[in-house]
Queue: 2 jobs
Job 1
Amino acid sequence: MVKGLMIMLLVFLVVAIIGWVMQLLSKAPEEKKKKYRKNLLIFYGLFLIIQGSVTFYESVEFEVLSIVQLLAGIVLFGAVTFGKYEQNLKSEG
């Protein structure tokens, strides 16, 4: 019971930290938001590439999910770094 309570408190703490960071980022200028978004997508693409390649090389059988992760990571990383991923944010008013 104590272990479950500790896990629940840890999850609440992580969610509170994420909410606090998101509140800070909402007040940031638009250029800084674009920079953070680009860095996050590059990191996520690299994470998918690493996770897919490790899963592919460690598995004995052919796993489609590892190939999909690897390809998605390569596409995401390539799209962000080569400038194909651009968000057009139009302000209303």
Job 2
Amino acid sequence: MLGELIGEFQGEDSGRRVIGGADGHPVVEVSFRGTGSYYGITVNSLGTYESEVRSDGSLYGEGQGVDMTADGQGVTWHGSGVGHFTADGGTSFRGALFFSTVSPDLERLNGVVGLFEYETDAGGKSTGKFYEWK
């Protein structure tokens, strides 16, 4: 069951590179940065994901990142999802995130599965929303 909104993200791509092309399926690595929040706590975010174009045109991606509060508390995450290209040249993904932290302010994320909606426009600007999976 989809639970409460636990976070939001706004960012932009900071780099892209082609890292493979097995059997004609290109794999692209995307690094991004931005700002967001978890349970109302503001964080700066850095992350990288790899995205593969599948034979049917859909996308599969896996990534990881770190989000830091202004006073240096952090949370790491790993995730995966599926997506597609949008009509305007961006991408749209849905998937799951898994968190780990020793931060007292962010410890609520430990043990949470976050379901995400992540949109990127053709210019690399992105937005995301994260919901707790109950």
